[in-house]
Amino acid sequence: MKPVAIFQHTEVGAPGSVPAILDELGIPHRLISILDGDAVPARADAYAGMIFMGGYMSAHDPLPWLAEEMALIRQAASLRTPLSGHCLGSQIMAAALGGAVSRNPRPEIGWGRITATDDPQAEQWLGCHAGQSLLTFQWHGDTFSRLPPGARLIATNPHCAHQGYVLDGIHIGMQSHLEMTPALVQLSLERNGAQLERELAAGNPAVSSPSATLADLEDKTRTLRETLFTLYSQWVRHLHR
């Protein structure tokens, strides 16, 4: 089987629990570290699927690798190669496939909840979580403000209306960070805690305090992993074998 490509853009935007979940599902994978200078592949047909992780940059930034990733995403979509995006990755996918990315009304940072839609599409991807409130971890200022044509919204919350989408039944975009591990949460706070403190001081209701961000990490990240395992159990069914 061809490997799944995992694109890492920044140190904090590491794939977290994703590789272990793919291992558990029996799916080979290859890390493509844009952070370390790896080139964006020219051909989508070398991979069974592609996963795009997060990052501090905007999908609109004039970075050569961003344009190359968007071209690769369009090529993959034309081949029906399954795509998955986490935070920035979901925004890059949306921008490449005809949606729009813009500033969210307020940054979301730390632990929060999203609500899965109560419909067959959400049930297919989220199982028993459809129609339910889900714990998640957020760290974003932008969002996919308009879904790609044909995409179906599968999650929302009061601070950011678009929290997840499915496109063509095989591609999944997630605004939040379901991939977080305890170490990755701690690293996020170490590297970007000043932004959290500023937003908290400004009264942003979509931000959790540093102490709340670090509390009960084992239990919280275990819950995230369970949700992400459900999503990827569905996603891998569509991979090019």
Could you write a compact summary of the structure shown?
InterPro entries: ChyE-like, Class_I_gatase-like, GATASE. With 241 residues, the chain is an alpha/beta fold.
Report on the structure:
With 241 residues, this protein is α/β, with parallel strands linked by helices. It has one domain: Class I glutamine amidotransferase (GATase) domain (Rossmann fold, 3-Layer(aba) Sandwich). 34% of the residues lie in helices and 26% in strands. The protein has seven helices and nine strands. The protein has a nine-stranded mixed sheet, with helices on both faces. 46% of the residues are buried. The mean pLDDT is 97.
The side-by-side strand order for the widest beta sheet comes to 2-1-3-4-9-8-7-5-6
Q: Between the first and last Cα atoms, what is the distance in angstroms?
A: 5 Å
**SSE run:** EHEEHEHEHEEEEHHH
Secondary structure: number of strands: 9
- Taken as a percent bin, the fraction of beta residues is 25-35%
> Spans with pLDDT under 50 lasting ≥5 residues?
none
At the fourth level of CATH, the homologous superfamily is Class I glutamine amidotransferase (GATase) domain
Helix-strand category:
alpha/beta
The proportion of residues forming helix, as a percent range, comes to 25-40%
Largest sheet: 9 strands, mixed
The shape, in one word, is globular
Second CATH tier, the architecture:
3-Layer(aba) Sandwich
- Supply the number of helical segments: 7
CATH C-level: Alpha Beta
Q: What value does the Rg take, in angstroms?
A: 16 Å
CATH topology: Rossmann fold
Give the rounded overall mean pLDDT: 97
